Amino acid sequence: MKLDAAAVWTNSRLFIRSNALAHVAVAILVGALAGACVTAMTKAAEFAHVVIYGIPFDVRLSASARVSPVAAVAALCLGGLVMGLIEMWRRRRSASATVDPVEANALRGGRLSLRDGLVVVSQTLISNGCGASVGLEAGYAQIGAALASRIGVILRLRRHDLRTMVGCGAAGAIAAAFAAPLTGGFYAFELIVGTYSLSNAGPILAAAVAGVLTVKGLGGAPYLVSAPAVASLTLTHHLALVGLGLIAAALGVGAMRAAALVEGSFRASRLPIWARPVLGGFIIAAFAIVTPQILGAGHGALGLDIPCDMPAWTLGGLIALKLTACLVSLASGFRGGLFFASLFVGALLGKLYAIVLAAALPTLGVDPTACLFAGMATLGVAIVGGPLTMTFLVLESSGDLGVAGGVLAACIATSLTVRATFGYSFSTWRLHLRGENIGGAQDVGWIRDLVVAKLMDHAPPILVASATLAELRAAYPLGTTHFVVLADEQGRYAGIVSVPEAHAVGEAGAPISDLARLTAISLRPDENVREAMKRFETAQSEILAVTDPETGAILGLLGEAHAARRYATETDRAAKGVLGGG
Predict the structure, then answer these.
(1) Are the C-beta atoms of 63 and 80 separated by less than 8 Å?
(2) What is the CA radius of gyration of the chain?
(3) Which class for 70: exposed (0-12), middle (13-18), buried (19 or more C-beta within 10 A)?
(4) Domain harbouring 474, CATH code
(5) Average pLDDT over residues 226-253
(6) Which of 4, 153, 338, 521 has its CA at 20 to 30 Å from residue 267's CA atom?
(7) Residues 386/191, Cβ–Cβ less than 8 Å
(8) Sequence-separated (6 or more) residues with CB below 8 Å from residue 442
């Protein structure tokens, strides 16, 4: 009976691996699970806000008129202490940094730890629940992607299919958060998978729709965005929105630069690791006493501020306070996302831009709501990335294709400006600060996995460097091998000799070391194939020895032709995965 069950499971797994419709079915399951996680996390955070701050259950924390200073200081400092103790415990255990969905898909072929995902969810709930200026969307995407990765690993999906499944988990989560399936789908295409193709469109969009339907069935999306209808836009209005996009790009790049400076300031403070979030919590509590709008992600504050007429100085002050609170939250050790926070600050920026534009060019007549949507989307592009993601969010929020066109133009201008002046979104910038040189979720992990140690000949012909040409000719007649690696008396690398050349030139008693070349150039076993190809080009050689970088011991031999063939094969395989072939 056990054998029959095992055979059924094996056959089912093979069917799912090879059938596109089965992939869609699994993606729907993943999207539904992600939607359920979004609902559970949202309810848990809202319950924490009600208990800690004493607000009504139907009122968002950031929409409160005021909060108790005692509750704010106590909650944020105690929450910071918990976050600091968790980080101290992780460091004592030498736990590696948590891998997010972008890094998993770029470097690890879509493999994510479910345990790490639960840790991120816990940290995000603690941070947002106590009122830190971060959103839950990082936890939403993390747990959705981690569940998808675990299911994909159990089903033994191929590398590109597993990466797509991780995209499905993130798409289901973000779509559920905003009740916006196109937003969730393109969040996955642009930010998690790194590409759109026919092979990944079906599963990802199916997961996004499943996430939205699930969260609607369980009580509704947490991050609905609504605004008044927008008047039609002219060409000059489009140009005005592009100008707003350039301002948002400058603000976003400034915020990302400031994030590194603020984080560096906390590290340089010499405070123990557990005390940094406590200090951060105290600073945020001080801001919350000025205005509760800086607490949490800011969804309640956005709903409160959209219909209000606010003076320019109030808008500017809110933008400065909210951005500072977000940076202090993340730099001090709280955990969460900036997706919705960037939308909130961008909306305030759009309202401020509309006021300034109306005063400077009163005849232009740009609809303030169009500026609000454009500011929201462009600052989201500057910090989070994904111009199409943010455009579809505006389209699904407003239902207006005309304003979405103007927002798309502004988002493209923002994206190009950020890429030209900075080169990273916030997620990839933080990875860059950790030493990971990746610009997005495009799959480069296979290049890192294809290292010299996996490609080299582990048993190359070796001869001592003190041997004579006669000894080499006797040991390696013509036709037996093309190259011999030389080793000194201590077994260290001493160069390479061409066997045909050794048979053609020199007297029999001459030392073979006279013909040795590349004595100072070799490959390291941990270099990837791309680095190896550059080394071949620099050395102008078709063969290189592989040596231990510390001892100089000979580990193997690698030919340029073999490395090039493997590189081309793996590149072709990766391309087929993206395009849905093979």
Answers:
(1) no
(2) 29
(3) exposed
(4) 3.10.580.10
(5) 88
(6) 338
(7) yes
(8) 106, 194, 195
The predicted-structure confidence for 30-59, as pLDDT tens digits, reads as follows 999 999 999 999 999 999 999 999 888 878
Instruction: Give me the percent of the chain exceeding a pLDDT of 90.
Output: 38
pLDDT at 323 over 90: yes
- Picking from 439, 458, 485, the residue at the C-terminal end of a domain is 439
Side by side, the strands of the sheet bearing 483-487 are 462-464, 483-487, 493-498
- pLDDT, residue 291, reads 92
Residues 383 and 529 in one domain: no
Closest by CA to 67, choosing from 284, 321, 323, is 284
User: What sign does the CA torsion over 215, 179, 325, 351 have?
Assistant: negative
Query: From residue 32, how far is each of 17, 59, 284 by CA, in Å?
Result: 20, 27, 35
Shared domain check, 495 and 370: no
Is residue 496 in some structural domain? yes
Do 30 and 133 fall within a single domain? Answer: yes
Residue 1 pLDDT greater than 70, yes or no = no
Residues 432 and 498 in one domain: no
CB within 8 Å of 225: residues ≥ 6 apart:
178, 302, 343, 376, 393, 397
β-bridge partners, 376: none
HEC-encoded secondary structure of 541-559: CCEEEEECCCCCEEEEEEE
**Pairwise CA distance, residues 356 & 369, whole Å:** 14
Backbone angles phi, psi at 473, to 5 degrees: -65, -35
Average pLDDT over residues 298-310: 85
- Do 258 and 371 share a domain, yes or no? yes
> Are residues 305 and 162 both part of a single domain?
no
Q: Is the pLDDT confidence value at 9 over 80? A: no
One-letter identity of residue 254: G
Counted domains in the chain: 3
pLDDT tens digits, 419-468: 888 876 666 656 555 555 555 555 455 556 678 888 888 888 888 888 88
Least confident of 147-151, 514-518, 555-559, 561-565: 561-565
Structure tokens at 86: 């968790």
pLDDT digits (tens, 9 = 90+) for 72-97: 999 999 999 999 999 888 888 877 77
Looking at this protein, which amino acid is placed at residue 379? L
Q: Are residues 39 and 130 in the same domain?
A: yes
Residue 268 lies in a domain: yes
Instruction: Provide the residue range defining the domain that includes 281.
Output: 235-439
For residues 376-404, average pLDDT: 90
> Of 420, 439, 458, which residue is a domain's last?
439
Q: Is there a domain that residue 64 lies in? A: yes
Contact 19/156 with Cβ under 8 angstroms?
A: no
The answer to whether residue 465 sits within a structural domain is: yes
366 sits in the region (left: phi over 0; alpha: psi -120 to 50; else beta) called beta
Give the residue with greater pLDDT, 170 vs 520.
170
* Domain at 62, CATH number: 1.10.3080.10
Whether residues 289 and 365 fall in one domain:
yes
In angstroms, rounded to a whole number, what is the distance separating the alpha carbons of residues 152 and 574? 18
